[in-house]
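Worked example

This section walks through a single chain of length 316. The input is the sequence exactly as stored; nothing has been trimmed or padded.
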Amino acid sequence: MRTFLLSLVFLACAFPSPYPAEFVTSANGLRADVYHLPPAPVVYQNSTALTFSPTAFTLIQGSHHAVLVDAPATGAQATNLTAWIKATLGPRKSLKYIYITHGHGDHFFTAPLICAAFPGCQVVAREDVNAHMHEQYEEPLFSSLWLSLFPGGQITSVPFNASYILREADRTFMLEGHALRAVEVGQGDTYNSTVLHVPDLELVVGGDVIYGKCHQLFVEDWTAELRQQWIQSLDRAAALKPAFVVPSHTKPGDGFAPSHIRDTKTYIRTWERVLAQSKSWEELEGEMKKAFPFRDGSFILRWSSQAPFGASSIVA
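Given that input, the structure is written out below as tokens.
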């Protein structure tokens, strides 16, 4: 019987991490839980005042095995996430797959590190997402973005291929007889984005297509046409008719309602309007803060605001 309780559970006594986890739903022999990484401090334009967006990682478990959706950027984050996975699964279950929703480094860099803690674990990605992952290591992007934001050896990732590639004709993989569908919806905050659809849980894990209460990244959505494509991608996610939606960038307590899809559209349309009226990146940033005062991710808002005015120090 489906459980609709969306209770916030702190597991500090069970594993050595200060980060909270939330139960999402359970049905048909599957269960979904979410682990929250808090906003991470970054170094940007000689300042440490900004933070990277909080990020959620979804664990879908059956009777014996589990799937993690995405993996964080830094080694310390991966260590804490791995400890939580082990505490959540217990000694009789193991992590079988890590599914990568899209090719941004904060969603896959540490996947091999986490997999190494679970013998037989495989990194799963669509073929085009795997190719996109390799682009994150290209210079000057890798140094000007990832190594600059997280200095001092926090990023130790090297290029790798997913060990389980989903080809064009093979968009589904299985967990104990349950189908997990890698649905390419198109443009999100980056191109060829996917969501993971778990029909037996009525669940969509939204990657960077669907946002919670976090500022949305527009650096790769620099035209009105691309932003409209993002809205169309949200319509494709909504067409899956999920009862539960987990955005990748969300905060504890945001909940897992399908209304995140609508709210992500609202943010895009507000950005469109405010961008058209703004004469500087400072004005754009300030007006978006006023419009969405409770959203986190100050670095993402700063970078997105600066990009249209050529003020960013990140070189792609």
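What to look for: The first helix runs from residue 75 to 89.
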